[in-house]
Amino acid sequence: MGTASMPDLVIGDLRINPPIIQGGMGVRVSAARLASAVSNEGALGVVASVGTGEEWPDRTLDCPARSYLSLRDMLQQVRSLTPNPFAVNIMCALNNYEDLVRAADEEEVAAIISGAGLPLRLPSLVKHRSIKLIPIVSSGRAADLICQSWQRRYSRLPDAFVVEGILAGGHLGFSVDDVVSAHKPLEAIVLEVLAVTGRYEREHGVSIPVIAAGGIFDGSDIARFLALGASGVQMGTRFVCTHECDASRQYKEAYLNCREEDILLIKSPLQLPIRVIRNSFVDRISRGEREEFRCAYHCLAPCEPDKAPYCIAQALVNAYRGHMEAGFATCGANAFRVNRIVSVHELVQELVGDTLLHLGHG
């Protein structure tokens, strides 16, 4: 399993090679097909939990129950498609966060990756100690706060950190002003978090690997962060334009057809920045127009539907299904560099070869 010349990403007893985690992308952009294909290459495939219940056939169930059952079903599908470890991404901001964590716990996934807020209660929700708990942070301060809280309350530390910079896709853990003014390069944030984890590693005799995320595009990026001290990388954008990605063909074509100037930051209904590919829907909401909707999801805890200019859940469901006129594709800052659809196998082999070349092993 994996490529011998690449360093392992070691998280406890979990060994990932190549040291690549596929980013969790909702709604259903990274579901069973993509996650299993990535894990079959030795990297770590990740199912995004957000919006899983939308395609669940029993519409008589309320949304939390549908999401719980649908996520369990999706994780079982992944297990049927790969013998290798896989993970699930669960956003702290979700109203049914505890239900989704319970589903992941009951399915005994290899890891739970959790961001869009600080997962301060996560250890109390997971019964299986074998499951690796991996917060997503955007600063050394956030990493330190999680370590302090978990150690004090649960006598444990995170198994790893994903460190996400301003070039990432999806909801960003920065203000719009921070992103626009290029707040801090990812390298600086990774070094901040490495200083924090290094302190806890020395104090407690543990290993807390750091995984760089946000704008990682090719082997030169991977090699650079490995040389900096990161143990691996997380990549989302590159995996969208793969045959196995679960999103619609129209979603993938938004990537293939976009230019650098088409990649915009808008505010989500949570008033957080989110990076998207410009289209007619994005133009309308950017002009301040309101998309009429009835809140059928109640998905995000801080969302106020009566004040929101659009329903982000519906927009993302529409995009996943290919109805781009009523939604948008989210992306990382480098989406304009994607120019073809390949298999996951081809992509991983390209990334490995390029990384080895830049590490001096090619």
Give structural notes.
It is a single chain. The protein has 362 residues and is of the alpha/beta class. The chain has 2 domains: 9-247 and 340-359, TIM Barrel; 249-326, no CATH class. The protein is built from 13 helices and 13 strands. It has helices at 32-40, 63-81, 97-106, 122-125, 140-154, 176-180, 186-204, 219-228, 237-240, 249-257, 280-286, 312-321, 344-359, and strands at 9-11, 14-16, 20-22, 45-48, 86-89, 111-114, 132-137, 161-164, 170-171, 210-213, 232-235, 263-267, 273-277. The strands form 3 sheets. The chain has an 8-stranded parallel beta sheet with strand order 3-11-10-8-7-6-5-4. Strand 10, helix 8 and strand 11 form a beta-alpha-beta unit. Helix 2 (63-81) runs parallel beside helix 3 and helix 5 runs parallel beside helix 7 (186-204). The chain is globular. The two termini are 20 Å apart. The mean pLDDT is 90.
